[in-house]
Amino acid sequence: ETTMKEYKAWKPYLSENVCILLDDLKRDGMEKAFNQMDGNKTRYDFLNYGNGWGVIYLKPIINTRCKTCG
Questions:
Q1: How far is CA 2 from CA 13, 28, 47, 48, 62, in A?
Q2: H/E segment holding residue 2
Q3: How far apart are the C-alpha atoms of 56 and 21, rounded to whole Å?
Q4: What pTM does this model have?
Q5: N or C: which end of the chain has fewer CB within 10 A?
Q6: Tens of pLDDT, residues 7-57
Q7: Is 41 exposed, middle or buried (0-12, 13-18, 19+ CB in 10 A)?
């Protein structure tokens, strides 16, 4: 509940290119908050000793190639 209040308060000030990192996704309420947040999401539970770690990108990730590199 607190996490979502903070997210909603800060979201208008965030760039569309923001990357939001959340830890302790397995703590009460955190997984629910993570699932309610907008954006493309990835979880890396194995990187945080089993407590859960998540990444949210508000802007869709576009795979583009460097024009110089080919």
A1: 18, 11, 24, 22, 32
A2: helix 2-10
A3: 7
A4: 0.66
A5: C
A6: 899 889 988 888 888 888 888 888 888 889 888 888 877 655 667 778 887
A7: middle
